[in-house]
Amino acid sequence: xxxxxxxxxxxxxxxxxxxxxxxxxxxxxxxxxxxxxxxxxxxxxxxxxxxxxxxxxxxxxxxxxxxxxxxxxxxxxxxxxxxxxxxxxxxxxxxxxxxxxxxxxxxxxxxxxxxxxxxxxxxxxxxxxxxxxxxxxxxxxxxxxxxxxxxxxxxxxxxxxxxxxxxxxxxxxxxxxxxxxxxxxxxxxxx
Length: 191
Prior knowledge:
The protein is an alpha/beta fold. It contains 10 helices and 6 strands, in the order ααββααβαβααββααα.
């Protein structure tokens, strides 16, 4: 590993430690097994952001490891990438009880830490996995209209996608997700 990668990995570890030291969302933390911070390449050109950990993620301490994560891995492979090439995280870093949607105050409590993660990694492209993640940064958009369409805001390129779990419940979404994700290499070439 080069020095930059080591420095970025250390900075990311520091942000994870700060979340625990700052006791962000103590009620969520109390109901979770562990912090699910993020995994992948600290020098990634692409960062994927979901909404919050589910049961499998809470158990393993890694985002997108359940059924939706397996489909994400399959989608990444379709464009010759894997989890080691990208960085994967969630807005909220503790599992909400019963897999409920994160509440607005929970999202806001974690947002500064997510922004620090992005500042350390400095991705060329941020990919939102689902409307909840997208709406934190692009609240004016609707996922049904914005999916697969790159957006530039504040100097950062974003790509909203439907959440991979949508394909688990609606097989028609599978092709849409794969087609939208296939735009990533083209978008990266244009940045």
